[in-house]
Amino acid sequence: AQSVTQLDSQVPVFEEAPVELRCNYSSSVSVYLFWYVQYPNQGLQLLLKYLSGSTLVKGINGFEAEFNKSQTSFHLRKPSVHISDTAEYFCAVSDRVTNAGKSTFGDGTTLTVKP
Amino acid sequence: SQTIHQWPATLVQPVGSPLSLECTVEGTSNPNLYWYRQAAGRGLQLLFYSVGIGQISSEVPQNLSASRPQDRQFILSSKKLLLSDSGFYLCAGANGAQETQYFGPGTRLLVL
C-alpha cells in the first residue's frame, strides 16, 4: 500500500519569492515519484519525475525537486515564482513492481502567487 | 507523447439517469488507461485502470463501471446516477509505471 501526504494545503507567496511545496510518502514497495500541476478546470500536466539516479530532478517552468530516501520526501522548489505559477500542485507515487503504473496522489497544494 | 480526449467538458444529469463518459487516446498504442475522480479541494481518487482491451480493475466499490472495448477507448458508465457521483472526472494514459501519465481535460459532472 502507498500513501502520499502533502503537508501544506495552501501556500501563499509573493511574486519573485522562493517557494517549497512539501511531499512525504510511504510505501511497502519501491516507487517512482512525480509532481504534476493543474490549472483551473484542466487536467494535470507533468512538472518533473524521479525514476533513478541523481536525487535532484529538474523540471519545466524552473521547478526542481529533491528525492530524500531516508526521509521519504520529495519536496518541490522554485527559487523565484511568477504570477502564472498560481495553480494546484500534486505529488504522486507509482508502484515500480507492477507494470499497471497505479499512482497514488496527494490531496494537492494550492499555490497562490501574489503581486 | 500521447493526447487524451474526453467529452463532454460539462454534464448535468438528474439522479437516477444513466451515464457514459468516453475517453480516447491518440499517439500511442497499448497504453495503461485510468479513470480518476477529483472532489473539490481534494486529490485524485483512482476509480478504474486497464492494462489492455477488456481488462478492467476496480479500485473502489461504487456505483460506476468501466469498459475498454478498443485499445484506445475507455468508457466510464453508470446505470443510475447518485448525487454523490458529482465531481470532476479525469481520464489518463501511460505506457508503464515509470512513464508520465497524460491527462485529458476532464469532465465536470453535476448530478441534481
Keywords:
heterodimer, A: 115 residues, mainly beta, 6-stranded mixed β-sheet, 4-stranded antiparallel β-sheet, 0% helix, B: 112 residues
Order of helices and strands of chain A: EEEEEEEEEEEE
**Rg from Cα of chain B:** 13 Å
Helix- and strand-based class of chain A? mainly beta
- Principal-axis shape of chain A equals globular
The largest sheet of chain B, given as strand count, sense and whether it forms a barrel, is: 7 strands, mixed
What ranges of chain B have pLDDT less than 50 throughout 5 or more consecutive residues?
Answer: none
**Overall body shape of chain B:** globular
Describe this structure in words.
The complex is a heterodimer of chains A (115) and B (112). Chain A has 115 residues and is mostly beta strands. Chain A has strands at residues 2-6, 10-14, 19-21, 23-27, 31-38, 44-50, 56-58, 64-68, 73-78, 87-95, 103-105, 109-114. In chain A, the strands form three sheets. In chain A, strands 2, 5, 6, 10, 11 and 12 form a six-stranded mixed beta sheet that branches. In chain B, strands 2, 4, 5, 6, 9, 10 and 11 form a seven-stranded mixed beta sheet that branches. In chain B, strands 1-3-8-7 form a four-stranded antiparallel beta sheet, with no helix packed on it.
Summarize the structure.
Chain A contains no helices and twelve strands. Chain A is mainly beta.
